[in-house]
Write a structure and sequence with these properties.
The chain folds into two domains: 6-161, 3-Layer(aba) Sandwich (Rossmann fold); 169-269, ProC C-terminal domain-like fold (Orthogonal Bundle). It has helices at 13-24, 40-50, 58-63, 77-84, 103-110, 142-153, 166-174, 176-193, 198-216, 223-230, 236-246, 249-270, and strands at 6-9, 32-35, 67-70, 93-96, 116-120, 130-136, 156-160. The chain has twelve helices and seven strands. Strands 2-1-3-4-5-6-7 form a seven-stranded mixed sheet, sandwiched between helices. Bound molecules: NADPH dihydro-nicotinamide-adenine-dinucleotide phosphate and (2S)-3,4-dihydro-2H-pyrrole-2-carboxylic acid. Residues 9-15, 35-39, 42, 71-74, 76, 79-80, 97-99, 120-123, 174 line the site of NADPH dihydro-nicotinamide-adenine-dinucleotide phosphate. It is an enzyme of class 1 (oxidoreductase). Keywords: Amino-acid biosynthesis, Cytoplasm, NADP, Oxidoreductase, Proline biosynthesis. It catalyses: L-proline + NADP(+) = (S)-1-pyrroline-5-carboxylate + NADPH + 2 H(+); L-proline + NAD(+) = (S)-1-pyrroline-5-carboxylate + NADH + 2 H(+).
């Protein structure tokens, strides 16, 4: 269980997913602080829902913390660090979940040698199923990486990557849940258009994804083999899969990653 006091700068969707995961894994709510820039309603919701500390002034939160998690949008990081750099110390660990923003950039904005570890979780953190990538950044030692691993391991799996690979893994795993949600939305709509009751469509297609995901948890199993087991020669699955192939599924998904990765690179340049 994580014992370090932690301040989340930004109490948005990602911060909530991580905080929910930490609390359901036994982390004490007194050890978690969070602040927004101006959305007090959102902060009140976080306080009410999770019992975390949102009232102390930001400088007090930071003074009492071992870890500072940067969880604002990339475009807001410059403004946030302009104010916060006077409070963040070199004996604290800065963990950034920001897409695209390099640790060198964060260090420069901080103007000190605080260690920085970058993490790219996803919103499945809220149910303990994030696929988080962790990369050591400026001034980070293996001990700092271990602390970040400990934090993120309670909200899912952790994979250590090099910082240069974060653009790619952001497009793959940070954004990843949205691709599957989008596919589910279309299958639901298609089933309803073809005459199925909405509730039945919804519950069936969701369970299909949950069941398939459960099967994939065994990493020794090849997804291609799982697919072959479903696909009877000349049967319904083969007919459906032919449509995916005819519409260039692999090329399309390659492009999905390329575009998401490019966007991450742009975020790093344009904030
Ligand atoms: N959503 C996702 O699936 C994932 C997101 N990320 C990364 O997480 C970060 C946050 O994303 P997400 O949670 O979706 O965004 P949200 O918009 O939901 O939350 C961002 C929060 O940051 C706050 N904020 C902005 N500026 C400041 C500031 N100067 N000081 C304190 N708080 C501030 C905002 O408060 P206010 O409204 O008051 O301005 C807002 O509550 C992004 O950098 C994103 O790249 C990473 C992995 C996955
Ligand atoms: O869309 C985004 O920019 C963020 C980063 C990964 C998931 N959401």
């Amino acid at each position: 269980m994580m014992k370090q006091a932690t301040t989340f700068i930004g109490a948005g969707h990602m911060a909530e997913a991580i905080i929910a995961g930490l609390l359901s894994n036994g982390c004490s709510k007194e050890q978690i602080f969070s602040k927004n820039r101006s959305n007090m309603e959102r902060l009140a919701y976080m306080k009410q829902t999770y019992g975390i500390c949102c009232d102390p002034p930001i400088e007090e939160m930071i003074a009492r913390s071992d870890i500072i998690v940067l969880a604002m949008k990339p475009k807001d990081v410059s403004g946030a660090l302009e104010t916060l750099k006077q409070y963040i110390r070199e004996d604290q660990l800065v963990i950034s979940v920001l897409a695209g923003i390099s640790s060198a950039d964060i260090s420069e904005k901080l103007g000190n040698k605080a260690p920085i570890v970058r993490a790219m979780p996803n919103t499945s953190a809220a149910v303990g199923e994030s696929a988080t990538s962790i990369a050591p950044g400026m001034y980070a030692t293996t001990e700092h990486v271990s602390i970040a691993e400990e934090m993120f391991s309670v909200i899912g799996t952790t994979t250590i990557v090099e910082e240069k690979d974060l653009h790619l893994v952001t497009g793959l795993a940070g954004s990843g849940p949205a691709y599957f949600y989008r596919i589910i939305e279309s299958f639901e709509q298609a089933a309803v258009s073809l005459g199925l009751d909405k509730r039945a469509a919804r519950s069936l297609i969701r369970q299909v994804l949950i069941g398939a995901a459960e099967m994939l948890k065994d990493e020794t199993v090849d997804p291609a083999e799982l697919r072959r087991r479903v696909t009877s020669p000349g049967g319904t699955t083969a007919a459906g899969l032919e449509v995916l192939e005819a519409n260039h599924l692999s090329e399309m998904l390659y492009d999905v990653l390329v575009q998401a990765m490019k966007r991450s690179e742009e975020l790093g340049k344009s904030h």
